[in-house]
Amino acid sequence: MAKQHILALDYIRGISMLGVLGIHTGAYSLANPAANPHLFALLEIFTRFSVPIFFFVSAFGLFISQPLQTEFSYRAFLRRRFKAVLLPYLAWSFLYMLHYTWISSDISLWHSPLIYKYLAFGLASYQLYFLVILIWFYACMPCWRQLVRWLLKAPVIGLLSLLTAQILFNYYSSYILTADFDNHYLNLAVQHRMSFLILHYLFIFILGAVCAELYPQFLAALERNRDRITVFFTATLTGMLCFYYYLIYNEHYSLEQAVNTSHQLSPVGVLYTLGATLFFFTVFSRPLPAALATGLACLGNYSYLVYLVHPLVMYYLMIELTQAGIQLTAPVTIAFYLAALVLSTGMAALINKAGRLIPLLSLALTGAFPKQGTIRQKA
């Protein structure tokens, strides 16, 4: 199969990036004890598909560009993928660690064993765990290729079985498993399991691979079931919101407790991720209004750098608000979100431009030498 550029993937990256910014804006909004629960639901519940769908996009991009029937060199694959992800992960981890040391004068994280813990679990900044999980997915690629071969013999039954196993595993990991073992290192791994354990996102990753392998059939199925997909997306989103509001108003959870319970790894959260993935791919597989297509494509092109840099932008925005004595009311929270979006995209554009002038900087921060146009996220 010839290499294809699929616009729907760009648009999904763009809308997912908006969701990631929403999740982290919601976390900052909790600085206001009277945070609006409905705005918080928009920022933190509606957006819960954002990180898992990136795994779908990554797998889809990998398998559409290197399908099963083509020759696969594991060594060459690792060299390309680790350059695209491992180098930026290390570079940005050190940048965030340097930033923390600069603002706190605390150098303890540079000494063992803390530095190894930070790098192993993506603790230098709260968004970096995604890259740790992605690196593990890449390292295990021969396993995924074999699993996809097996699933293609009966894709519907295989994916439904994997979805069921995913829900059961995530429920156990999210609500039952605790770090109370005798072994210190096992406890450490269990404590930070959300930051590295790829099994939490295995279904959505493999779904992306299978859909890429069956791309024409996948598109036809989306079009054929367009109305059903919309209903499924709406129903699962409603389920997420009902769970959230039940926890707040019936169980009297705080907003933070509610969102830490009604999340993307909950049973309804896994189904919502599936619903959102199918829904957005369906919508974005048709022509979009020019302005919307341009905006989403721009966000998709910059999504990798925006994802990496936005915590710094939000940190300094919050400092400005705190120094000015401005509380994160609902209107201020919305303005904070928009400012973070604009400034993070601007920072991404500046890094992109600087990378064209200093190729090694581009390699370190994006995992690629500069090309004409914007630096795009690696699949």
UniProtKB/TrEMBL annotation:
Q: How does it sit in the membrane?
A: Multi-pass membrane protein
Q: Where is it located?
A: Cell membrane
Q: Pfam families attached here?
A: Acyl_transf_3
- Name of the protein in question: Acyltransferase family protein
> What family does the Swiss-Prot or TrEMBL record give for this protein?
Belongs to the acyltransferase 3 family.
| GO function term, MF aspect, one | O-acetyltransferase activity
Where does the Acyltransferase domain lie? 7-345
Q: Does this UniProt record's set of keywords contain Acyltransferase?
A: yes
Lineage per the UniProt record: Bacteria, Bacillati, Bacillota, Negativicutes, Selenomonadales
Q: Which domain of life is it from?
A: Bacteria
Q: Which residues form a coiled coil?
A: none
The record's GO CC annotations read: plasma membrane
Membrane spanning stretches:
12-31, 37-64, 85-103, 115-138, 150-173, 193-216, 228-247, 267-284, 296-318, 330-351
Keyword line: Acyltransferase, Cell membrane, Membrane, Transferase, Transmembrane, Transmembrane helix
Keyword Transferase found: yes
Q: What is its main location?
A: membrane
The alphabetized list of GO BP terms reads: enterobacterial common antigen biosynthetic process
